[in-house]
Specification:
The protein is mainly beta and about 350 residues long. Helices cover about 10% and strands about 45% of the residues. It is built from 3 helices and 22 strands. The strands form 3 sheets. Strands 1, 2, 5, 6, 11, 12, 13, 14, 15, 19, 20, 21 and 22 form a 13-stranded mixed β-sheet that branches. Strands 9-10-18-17-16 form a 5-stranded antiparallel β-sheet, with no helix packed on it. The longest helix is centred in the C-terminal third of the chain and has 14 residues.
Length: about 350
């Protein structure tokens, strides 16, 4: 006990205070958020950050934006339907190509001008997807060393592309429920079933909406920092072996199963009588495997978000939470990056 008291007294004697000048931003900053290469279309979102003190000197409405690809201007159009608290959005009216270097500049009176650069990654080609049932240990608790084995469906994803050391990847498996029939289902029965299940007709199929419960991101140096896991899906971040991207994603296996069966009557023109016919309604799953190649800027941005979201710093013990921040916007905030992607398209495993 005396030793502990002496140590505490010593700490009190040697402790000291030091004044540190912390730079506080008196002006707002232009905030850029843009990921070029999304399947749903390319856009640039812009906001103005709140100044630490003083008054706002401008708004996102007053920001002028310029984008070029390999030194040539790229057309931008304001999205008037974009809804955001004080933000604006511009849609690219021209396509950019893999390998192109992009430069973005934005300026407004009263705030510093900003600039950001990125390059569109090369397309991923020669993707091979293999599927099998595998017995794996699903660990619910990250501090747990082992767990009960489970049988999951494994997707192994590879490409023959030779990749450099600064290559960054993501892999994702999307799924949807497909509803199908055998026999002749009475119209009133089928209409009632579609309404109850909230089905959508897509390419002559009746499906529930697309969903995904995991995405993994990593670098070619095998720095696996993201492995989102939730619900039925366990998504391991891809790694690299002998120049090939290898993604391993595990999902709960689903077999085709019957959800309803009964008999209906259909008119037989030969016998001119109502014929009793059995019908069945069943569900099955379809999958769509997506592989992404990310620019370094997007990789580091995702990594910063991961560190903040999954930090184990014990805040309840008085420690400050992690505030790791990444930006490649010179003079401002946010991230300007790009990606290329591959999709397998929907396929079924019965």
């Amino acid at each position: 006990m005396k030793k502990i008291t002496y140590i505490l007294l010593l700490l009190l004697l040697v402790s000291c205070e030091r004044e540190v000048d912390f730079p506080v931003d008196a002006d707002g900053r232009i905030f850029i958020e843009s990921l070029i290469g999304r399947a749903e279309g390319d856009r640039i979102n812009i906001r103005i950050s709140q100044p630490a003190y003083g008054e706002e000197r401008t708004s996102a409405e007053n920001v002028s934006v310029y984008l070029e690809a390999d030194g040539k201007p790229v057309g931008l159009e304001r999205d008037m339907d974009y809804e955001s608290d004080g933000g604006v959005s511009y849609i690219l009216t021209e396509k950019v190509s893999p390998g192109q270097k992009l430069r973005l500049a934005a300026a407004a009176k009263g705030v510093p001008s900003v600039e950001a650069v990125t390059s569109v990654p090369q397309q991923i080609s020669d993707v091979v997807i293999k599927s099998r049932l595998a017995t794996v240990h699903k660990v619910e608790d990250p501090y747990q060393l082992s767990s009960e084995p489970r049988e999951l469906r494994e997707f192994q994803i590879t490409t023959s592309d030779r990749l450099d050391k600064e290559a960054y990847f993501g892999v994702q498996v999307c799924k949807r429920i497909v509803h199908d029939t055998t026999g002749w289902v009475p119209d009133d029965v089928w209409e009632a079933y579609k309404a109850k299940q909230d089905l959508v007709e897509v390419d002559d199929l009746y499906v529930n909406g697309e969903s995904s419960e995991g995405i993994g991101i990593s670098s070619s140096e095998e720095e696996v920092f993201v492995s989102f896991e939730g619900g039925e899906m366990r998504c391991m971040a891809p790694s690299v072996s002998d120049g090939n991207v290898i993604g391993e994603v595990y999902v709960k296996p689903h077999n085709k199963y019957m959800v309803a069966a009964n008999y209906g009557y259909i008119f037989d023109p030969i016998t001119e009588t109502d014929k009793r016919v059995k019908y069945e309604i069943y569900e099955t799953r379809e999958y769509n495997v997506k592989v992404f190649r990310l620019s370094p800027e997007m990789y580091h941005s995702f990594k910063a978000r991961y560190i903040m979201d999954w930090s184990d710093i014990p805040v309840h013990l008085g420690f400050s939470p992690v505030t790791y921040t990444y930006t490649n916007v010179k003079g401002g905030l946010g991230v300007f990056g790009a990606m290329s992607s591959y999709e397998s398209g929907w396929f079924r495993i019965d």
